[in-house]
Amino acid sequence: MSRFRLRLLLGVVTSFVVVCVVVVIIFHTQAEEIAAPVPQIADVVQTVLAERAATTLETDAAPFGDENVVNVLVLGIDSRKEGKEQHCDAIHLFAINVKDWTVKVTSVPRGTYSYIPPGNYLPTDYYLANACAFAGLDYGIAQIEHILGVKADYVVTAGFSQVLGSLRVLGLPTTSSLQWLRHRQSYAIGDPQRSQNQAVFIVDVLRKFGGPSAHVPAALQYLLYSFVDTKMSFGTARALYEGLVAADINAHPEKITYDMKPFYVTQDLHLDFANSDAQVAALLAKLKGRLSKDDLSGRTISDVQEELVAYLQKALDDGGSEFAVVIEAESWRQVEDDAKREELHYAYVEKYAKELNATDHVAAVQYVADYILEKQTLGLSEWEAKGRDLLTTLVVQ
What we know:
CATH class of the largest domain: Alpha Beta
CATH superfamily of the largest domain: LCP protein
Strand content: 5-15%
Order of helices and strands: HHEEEHHEHHHHEHEHHHHHH
Strand order of the largest sheet: 5-4-1-2-3-6
Low-confidence stretches: 6-19
Helix content: 40-55%
Radius of gyration: 23 Å
Number of helices: 15
Shape: globular
Largest sheet: 6 strands, mixed
Structural class: alpha/beta
Distance between the termini: 22 Å
CATH architecture of the largest domain: 3-Layer(aba) Sandwich
């Protein structure tokens, strides 16, 4: 064998070994995070306090709260297909007292007035959801903190697709839940009642899985954590969840209270998880004939799903900007048909991983490894195997 061929062979073997090591490290890191002991809550508090101390506050910035309270701002993001704007459509601050394990949920309706820096806006555009979209998410968060009067220690954001994915993992209704969370037309007070419904819904989910008998295992916790965007570590998220479970908040409803800023008189309305479809249908039936013909509420779920699948297939075939939008939003999670959703999910992962592999091999491997972990956690062995085959092709290239 010539020296040139020998060097070439050694180079290929070396690259293969390096990539294999990277793959092992990625899977090992995931396993370590899942299997790691839950951090002590005292350590979580110290981390929070250290991060607060390292944060330089402007003179007019909202202050941090009690040192025993971890403030988690949860935002439901609506990223529209026509652009990259991120509307803050659900705004809720969870103030978790880690000393007595109580939770205060303060909601801010999306339509609350907010100043937005000069731009080509209508007089009716000046509200929080648009502040996030037009001036950027960081600006919107700062406006939210001013209204709340407290600065968030952590911000957690999730889009429609991630919310649906989370609900599906937990075995809860998907489409009907999203309809419930977005609905406002049936209420005389409109947006504030919708905001309260969202807060009550999140708390109901937390309570459902907030007792020792309904504990979410670590692997599913990690999967749910992967669905959101946050700078909070997985360890911190686990510590807060496990602390609430240990306090058995499911059996102590008095430990969770609600507030709203600005204040509105609202009701605590609950979605019946066992009969959600019928409950939402009855809610929508009250509006029949009362909405504009341009309103989309008259469309059936099957119509919407058919259009969604067609859109996803076209974006997949065409590539380009729409493909990138779907990847960013993980829009395949909105497909209700299990087989079609998994088919589209894998097709997008395969196409994106191969494109990413041309410029960032490690990132492509990580992306596929995350896909494999998700399917493994959900017990979808067929798709897990496809993911492993895809990972093999990336490694041996």
